[in-house]
Amino acid sequence: QETEVWATLTEHDSVIYYDNDFEIFVDGNATTHYYKEYEMNAFNTTWDLCLNQPYANNGYENSSRVFGDQGFDMQPPLR
Questions:
Q1: Is the pLDDT of residue 47 over 70?
Q2: Bridge partners, residue 49, by sequence
Q3: Residue 78 region, left (φ>0) first, then alpha (ψ -120 to 50), else beta?
Q4: Is 42 left (phi over 0), alpha (psi -120 to 50) or beta?
Q5: 39 and 26 in contact (C-beta within 8 Å)?
Q6: What is the pTM for the complete model shown?
Q7: CA-CA distance, 71 to 62, in Å (whole number)?
Q8: Average pLDDT over the chain, rounded to whole?
Q9: 18 - beta bridge partners?
Q10: Enclosing H/E stretch for 75
Q11: What pLDDT does residue 77 have?
Q12: Backbone angles phi, psi at 43, to 5 degrees
């Protein structure tokens, strides 16, 4: 439990984990491949992405931060 919650990032799809943040991981197949991630900091700045596999296994991020309009976005329609 944090005694002082703080945030610095305000731009959507910033790399939120540098701030105190809340993270949700969704891996419906329990494979650690193509799992979805949603993060939010104390400013309500959000970052949503899909990882083809964990970063530790040379995974890459599919998000609108990386691929613009063609990247994964949790807003409908889901890609």
A1: yes
A2: 37
A3: beta
A4: alpha
A5: no
A6: 0.81
A7: 6
A8: 89
A9: none
A10: none
A11: 57
A12: -90, 5
